[in-house]
Amino acid sequence: MCLTEAASFELENEVLAQMGRPPMSRAVHLATWGELLLNAMPLRSPGLDLARFAELFPAAHQRYLAAGRLDVIPPENLRALDLLVEQGRTVLLLTSRAEAEVRHLLEPDHVLAGRVTGAYHQGNTRFRKPDPRAFDELLAETGFAPGQCVYVGDSPGDAVAAGGAGIRFIACLQSGVRRLADFDPRHVTAAVDTFPEINPVIEAL
């Protein structure tokens, strides 16, 4: 839904530059995309002072948000969300991001307001994808059964978590971060090239 990887790559390299460290390659960023940021950074920049990176990152993150460079949602993706809501479906977010990284998505003046009814992140879940228990709080609080849910994601870890929880999974390849061959087919119900293609897929499930 949000096209974030390219901007995140630039943001993280900006913080590395502040620390006097060489930039990571795009290849290593793509290979570790979907992992928790502070778990991925030692792989993206071996020998990194992780505590210092964590100290510098929030201010840089806020600058990127203020400039409208992060979590860009194309208009056609918003229309796809609107269609889901019009059909009476409940739209929820489940991410492994820290609460501070998603707080802006939950503001009353954000474009997702009125479209998304709840968000689950590091601040209100005990487990992280690809652990299937990442869905525990969502399922418990909404009362939905796994069979009533469909999860849309762009990483193999998303598919593993959903599959392990008994939730159908749609692989969305719009970001270009992954190819369908990167996913375990046992966990993939369907795949789409762009986010709006989920509407007819969900309708057919």
From TrEMBL:
SUPFAM superfamilies: HAD-like. It holds the Pfam family HAD_2. InterPro entries: HAD-like_hydrolase_sf, HAD-like_sf, HAD_2, HAD_sf, PGP-like_dom2. This is Phosphoglycolate phosphatase. It comes from Paractinoplanes deccanensis.
